[in-house]
């Protein structure tokens, strides 16, 4: 085993690890926020909102992430420069990067899965708890904010943990649109040093470690409200 | 807001409610003066719970007029020919003045007992948090749960959970307390502790409407008892009359069956 290259490539590796974490954090946070709207649209009364949300979730869950990423990167990416004013705007330095499209694709994809899970969790909240909230005079919006969503999120937590881990392992796909994430760094090292296993082993350890951290964080969140077993 | 301090706490007139072709309530009227304890009895399917749920609009009645603490509930007739609340704001405001206690407690499991109790005063009524906590603590002490204030509902027995939910209902200073079979989901040995709390409230002079199967208890604490049969008031009067000398044959049968 030859790990002598580590010091030479440490900058690349650290940057790659940072990008992997950044993509995970962005897509999970923004994806979750979007998922809340998708879930509310599906359990709510508005039939138009429900169909839009259903269609969205079906599309993004029904197509490969790789294809979504490429459609966004090559399709949307080649269209953006033609929008008047965008190239001169302060957003352009961000929006021309592969990272932007990678984060966008991962976010949209994550939201679709998360939206469906959250919808199920919302329906799993016992009706009586929501009735109790109505009975004390809460408005629909307040019930959502104070009772329904907090309860649904807790019910869904074990599943969310699994989804975040899956999302972590979906991130290497961004290498295909020029983002040098951790996998990208390993790929480059393999090409430079002609070492087959060692760079892959190193990033494997990193992914396992990050998964461990994620499970620990979710464990803490789950324990925040004690349940009798 | 039209409120009148001399008005009855609750006036319900001619309530109808159907589910599809099945008419559950066929024109029920009920008046509760301040301090009245009205027990609603009857076999299952007689419409007792539906009546109670119509009073705080968890079910929207098809027809009927409601006056809560002197304030008329405003309805409009929808295109389907049924009643709809003209203003959900009004419904929400009125609900916050009605304390509902459910058969299955329905505490919010992601909050501690104290958080459950102060939730409505703080977030619905806008009471200051420390004021609400002070009040909640005294209510929890009253129902014998002060030492459980920081526990989560899952760690309480059914009787404790029901007492906590009574404290939750009391914390908004309700004009009327509504009890929907408060002891039906409890193990027999836990029924007593909950009834004791409810009895205490009755003795304080709280206005209450209570759906119950506890005949002896209803007889003891009620100022009036209402016997429902197939969505209609079959018998109403003081407990001595309804339990002792009912005019209706059905009521006689029901009371006789429940008294042993």
TrEMBL record, chain A:
Membrane-spanning regions, if any?
Answer: 12-43, 55-74, 94-113, 200-219
Any idea which UniProt keywords this protein has? Cell inner membrane, Cell membrane, Membrane, Transmembrane, Transmembrane helix, Transport
Q: Name one GO molecular function term.
A: transmembrane transporter activity
| Gene Ontology terms: cellular component | ATP-binding cassette (ABC) transporter complex
Q: What is its main location?
A: membrane
Looking at the record, the residues that make up the ABC transmembrane type-1 domain are 13-218
Report if keyword RNA-binding is assigned: no
Homology family: Belongs to the binding-protein-dependent transport system permease family. HisMQ subfamily.
Protein's recorded name: Polar amino acid transport system permease protein
From TrEMBL, chain B:
Classification via Pfam families: ABC_tran
Annotated membrane topology: Peripheral membrane protein
Drop me one GO molecular function for this one: ABC-type amino acid transporter activity
Q: Indicate where this protein is primarily found.
A: membrane
SMART domains for this protein: AAA (SM00382)
Q: Which UniProt keywords apply?
A: ATP-binding, Cell membrane, Membrane, Nucleotide-binding, Transport
- Does the keyword field hold Cell membrane? yes
Q: Which GO terms describe its cellular component?
A: plasma membrane
PROSITE patterns xrefs:
ABC_TRANSPORTER_1, ABC_TRANSPORTER_2
Keyword check for Transport: yes
Q: Which InterPro entries match?
A: AAA+_ATPase, ABC_ATPase_HisP-typ, ABC_transporter-like_ATP-bd, ABC_transporter-like_CS, MetN_ABC_transporter-like, P-loop_NTPase
Entry similarity comment: Belongs to the ABC transporter superfamily.
Output this protein's name.
Amino acid ABC transporter ATP-binding protein, PAAT family (TC 3.A.1.3.-)
């Amino acid at each position: 085993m030859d790990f002598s290259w580590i010091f030479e490539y440490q900058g690349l590796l650290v940057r790659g690890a940072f990008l992997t974490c950044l993509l995970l954090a962005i897509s999970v946070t923004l994806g979750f926020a979007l998922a809340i709207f998708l879930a509310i649209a599906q359990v709510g009364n508005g039939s138009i909102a429900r169909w839009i949300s259903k269609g969205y979730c079906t599309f993004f869950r029904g197509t490969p992430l790789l294809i979504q990423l490429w459609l966004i990167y090559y399709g949307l990416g080649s269209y953006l420069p033609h929008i008047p004013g965008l190239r001169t705007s302060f957003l352009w330095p961000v929006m021309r990067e592969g990272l932007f499209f990678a984060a966008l694709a991962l976010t949209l994809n994550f939201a679709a899965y998360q939206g469906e899970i959250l919808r199920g969790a919302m329906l799993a909240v016992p009706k009586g708890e929501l009735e109790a909230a109505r009975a004390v005079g809460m408005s629909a919006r307040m019930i959502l904010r104070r009772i329904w969503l907090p309860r649904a999120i807790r019910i869904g937590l074990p599943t969310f943990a699994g989804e975040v881990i899956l999302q972590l392992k979906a991130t290497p796909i961004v290498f295909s649109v020029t983002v040098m994430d951790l996998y990208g760094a390993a790929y480059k090292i393999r090409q430079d040093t002609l070492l087959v296993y060692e760079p892959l082993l190193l990033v494997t350890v990193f992914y396992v470690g990050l998964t461990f951290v994620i499970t620990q964080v979710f464990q803490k969140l789950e324990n925040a409200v004690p349940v009798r077993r | 807001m039209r409120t009148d301090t001399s008005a009855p706490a609750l006036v319900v007139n001619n309530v109808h409610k159907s589910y599809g072709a099945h008419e559950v309530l066929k024109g029920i009227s009920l008046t509760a003066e301040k301090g009245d304890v009205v027990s609603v009895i009857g076999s299952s399917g007689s419409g007792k719970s539906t009546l109670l749920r119509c009073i705080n609009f968890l079910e929207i009645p098809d027809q009927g007029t409601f006056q809560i603490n002197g304030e008329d509930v405003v309805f409009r007739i929808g295109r389907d020919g049924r009643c709809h609340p003209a203003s959900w704001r009004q419904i929400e405001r009125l609900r916050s003045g009605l304390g509902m206690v459910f058969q299955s407690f329905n505490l919010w499991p992601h909050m501690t007992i104290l958080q459950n109790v102060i939730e409505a005063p703080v977030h619905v009524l806008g009471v200051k948090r420390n004021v609400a906590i002070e009040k909640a603590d005294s209510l929890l002490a009253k129902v014998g749960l002060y030492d459980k204030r920081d526990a989560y509902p899952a760690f309480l027995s059914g009787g404790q959970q029901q007492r906590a939910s009574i404290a939750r209902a009391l914390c908004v200073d309700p004009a009327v307390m509504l009890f929907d079979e408060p002891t039906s989901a409890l193990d027999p040995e836990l029924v007593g502790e909950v009834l004791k709390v409810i009895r205490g409230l009755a003795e304080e002079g709280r206005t209450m409407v209570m759906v119950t199967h506890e005949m002896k208890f209803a007889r003891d604490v009620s100022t009036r008892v209402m016997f429902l049969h197939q969505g209609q008031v079959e018998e109403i009067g003081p407990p001595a009359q309804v339990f002792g000398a009912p005019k209706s044959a059905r009521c006689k049968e029901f009371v006789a069956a429940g008294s042993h």
